[in-house]
Each structure stands twice: as structure tokens, then as C-alpha cells.
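Q:
My hope is that you can spare some time for a protein that puzzles me. I hope you can help me see how the letters and the C-alpha cells relate. Thank you; the sequence and its C-alpha cells follow:
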Amino acid sequence: MADKVILLDLFASMFGMRARVALALKGVEYEYREEDLRNKSQLLLESNPVHKKIPVLIHNGKPVCESLIIVQYIDEVWNHKSPLLPSDPYQRAQARFWADYIDKKLYDAGRNIWTSKGDEQEFMEILKQLESQLGEKAFFGGESLGFVDVALITYSTWFHTYEMCGNFSIEEQCPKVVAWVKRCLEIEAVSKSLPDPDKIYDFALVLRKVFGIDKA
């Protein structure tokens, strides 16, 4: 019996994009269901009754919630193709640490840029910390794309929005991060799983009007 995989998601969610990238890297076929977060589906509410958030991966009727947990689940279940997490326990712990750092720091700092007048200082400090961790490596996972790369690359779809709303250049301050983004996008499974940054910007502009930040 073939696996039945459903992803409840929102196109602009960098968290949902992680699941899309991981599934694509593993070559897993799945049914994508776009959620309206103002009118959440019954399936979403039943599948994630605690947080009621996307993304939710439903594998053979069993829901898995929270993006980093979903990526780890995908890595473990479909382990026939290039692992995302390293086999060494210490390196695996380090990968989880930096992915957790991204979640705890980067989302709010980025959101503060596009939902306000655009103070990018905090965001850039976090990105510089991540650039330091990348160092001279091709990917955070070393020579091949790994768990931290999947956790971070989805934010790159929002870089254009941050720059437009904050009036600054990420490449000027973090050129290694931008070069890393370009390397990631050379991988077809990654580039095909991520939305056009212009569409993200349009989405953010609509939300700014909804939030009353920009006058209609």
C-alpha cells in the first residue's frame, strides 16, 4: 500500500516551505492543501488541536505538527535518500541547536521589519551570527545541504520583502549568506519548492493594509 501524504500549508509560510523542501529532497509525492488561516479547515483543527497552525503533515492518517519536527520526521521515515541530519550525535545536536536558534530569533526579527517602519538592526545581527556559523562551508551541513539549510533557506523567500520594507541590502552586510542562498537554489528540489519572492512581497503588502500599517 502506497503512503498517503497530505500537507496542510500556506504558500507564504517559511515554516510550511520547510516541509515542502524536505519532501521534494526525499522525492515524496504528496497532496498539497492550501489553508485559509482566517477560516481554518476542520481537518486542520482536528489534526493540530493544540496550536491550530500550519504546517501539518498527515502521513497515512497520522498528523505531525511543527515544522522542524516535520522535517525530522520526513528525514527518518524516508531515510533511503541523503539524510538531512548528521549521523554523529554531537553534530546532530549542533544542527538542532542552530535550527532552534533560527526559530527563536529570526522570525520575530523579520516580522518586525515588514510590520513596522523597518528596523533591520536586530535581524542583521542574527543573520551575521548565522553567517559566522556558515563560515567557509558550502552549506551549513558541510558539503551537502542539511537540516539547518532546510530550516533557513525558506526565509530567503522573504528577504526581498524585508529589504523593500526596511530599505536596506542583505547582500551588502551578509554576502556569504546571499551566496549560500544562490547555492541552495541551484538544487532543483529546493528552487521548485519555494515561491517567487515577488509574490511574498505582494502578500506582505496586502497584510500591511489589513493591519492598518499602510493606508489602502
